Amino acid sequence: MKRSVVMIDLPSILITDDDAEFRETLRGVFEPEGYRTLLAGDGEEALEIVHREEIHVILLDMHMPKLTGLELLVLVRDFSALLPCIMLSADLDAAIVAQAESADVFAILSKPVTRHRIVAEVETAMRHVYNWPA
């Protein structure tokens, strides 16, 4: 991925997961870290948000209604090739990993994920794509 030269005052994370409690937990992790968070309960809602809001990182669950995380990833790539997408799943297998990698996923994390690991992955994505300070 190429680095962007966009100046970012407040980075935005789209948290997409059909588990409302998990979405709120992640909101509670990232807002104190200085991120604006947007929440989506399914892939279609997330796609609508991506089209209308400035998003810097997407956290997406693999298994969701309407659009899976993988289907959402493919559609996001058509819209924004550089937007870092981090996939989360409790049921990772080699086929899902291969498909996500071929769709240029930034990272794949297995659930349950630690606070430290997910924050570190988002910070890595922000540095890599936007040259965001650590």
How do the strands and helices of this protein lay out in sequence?
Elements: E1 12-16, H1 20-30, E2 36-40, H2 43-52, E3 57-61, H3 69-79, E4 85-89, H4 94-102, E5 107-110, H5 115-130
Structural write-up:
With 134 residues, this protein is of the alpha/beta class. Helix content is 43%, strand content 18%. It has a five-stranded parallel sheet with strand order 2-1-3-4-5, sandwiched between helices. α2 packs parallel to α3. The chain is globular and about 35 Å long.
How large is the count of helical segments?
Answer: 5
Elements, N to C (H/E): EHEHEHEHEH
Structural class: alpha/beta
**Biggest β-sheet strands, sense, barrel:** 5 strands, parallel
Name the shape in a single word. globular
Q: Indicate the radius of gyration in whole angstroms.
A: 13 Å
Q: Kindly, what is the distance between the CA atoms of the first and last residues, rounded to a whole number of angstroms?
A: 18 Å
CATH-defined topology: Rossmann fold
CATH superfamily: Response regulator
The number of distinct structural domains comes to 1
Low-confidence segments, given as residue ranges, are 1-5
Question: Which range does the strand content fall in?
Answer: 15-25%
- Major sheet: order of its strands? 2-1-3-4-5
For this structure, what is the CATH class?
Alpha Beta
- Summarize the amount of helix as a percent range: 40-55%
| CATH architecture tag | 3-Layer(aba) Sandwich
Rounded mean pLDDT score: 91
Entry keywords:
globular, 5 strands, alpha/beta, 134 residues, Rossmann fold, five-stranded parallel β-sheet
